[in-house]
């Protein structure tokens, strides 16, 4: 029997997905990325899941796209076959995604973490874009998202040298949210996912969208999007519930409606 490429678990409104190709440091082949996009889309539609948690194992979150699969590809293959189409599906997920990163997050692995909304890393995690050493450049957003996250000169150094940075440096550069000991990574990331899962789902969804818009819209347009999203939430039950609960000094019970 072949082992599954992903290990999936649902706990307290958190959908956990573990990448499971440990023998190749979770190298992201087409089949795995397809399955990941499928599962994330299912979780995006599942009312019982309010936050997604993506993890690897202690040696690697993911060491990049599968080099074995790519090595003999031609430019025409990339254009004609939908080699990388599933990556676009992942960035369109509307629920928040937390990456819990231990070990290597390199190339496509670093790009996958950056597609997530929050990154919690262990002290031994390493982030890098080593594609330059293979004669190519990042292709799943590395030159764009890394630059937006850490600024031009830092991104340039990482991408031109291909040298990974340790978690503590990634934290200082603003690439990740927090660094925790390896043994508590899963629990800390889960607690954060659970905390977000307890928030009103519609507001969470629109907040995610609005923050992502800030990355690529001019301020005027971003502010416009924010304002309209704010107005829209006043037609939700959760807005009434949240404000009433505050006035009645009780805990709100959000339904995502
Ligand atoms: N692909 C395939 N196999 C890999 C792999 C990868 N990326 N990374 C590691 N492996 C395999 C190794 O070949 C080895 O297999 P065996 O030899 O045992 O069969 C096994 O995993 C263990 O690796 P090592 O023996 O090398 O382990 P070490 O601890 O010595 O070294 C390492 C760990 C992470 C430093 C090293 O494995 C390494 O440098 N790996 C390659 C990292 C890399 O260059 N990653 C970038 C790949 S290019 C796009 C989407 C995505 C992408 C591009 C476009 N579009 C949407 C357009 C992404 C591109 C990339 O990620």
Keywords, separated by commas or semicolons:
four-stranded mixed β-sheet; 2-enoyl-CoA Hydratase, Chain A, domain 1; globular; single chain; alpha/beta; 47% helix; 10 strands; 257 residues; binds 4-(N,N-dimethylamino)cinnamoyl-COA; six-stranded mixed β-sheet; Lyase 2-enoyl-coa Hydratase, Chain  A, domain 2
How would you describe the overall organization of this protein?
With 257 residues, the chain is α/β, with parallel strands linked by helices. It has two domains: 195 residues, 2-enoyl-CoA Hydratase, Chain A, domain 1 (Alpha-Beta Complex); 47 residues, Lyase 2-enoyl-coa Hydratase, Chain  A, domain 2 (Orthogonal Bundle). The protein has twelve helices and ten strands. The chain has a six-stranded mixed beta sheet with strand order 1-2-3-5-7-10, sandwiched between helices. A four-stranded mixed beta sheet has the order 4-6-8-9. Strand 2, helix 1 and strand 3 form a beta-alpha-beta unit. Helix 1 runs parallel beside helix 4, helix 6 crosses helix 7 and helix 10 packs antiparallel against helix 11. The model has no long low-confidence stretch (mean pLDDT 96). It binds 4-(N,N-dimethylamino)cinnamoyl-COA (DAK). 4-(N,N-dimethylamino)cinnamoyl-COA binds next to helix 2 and strand 6.
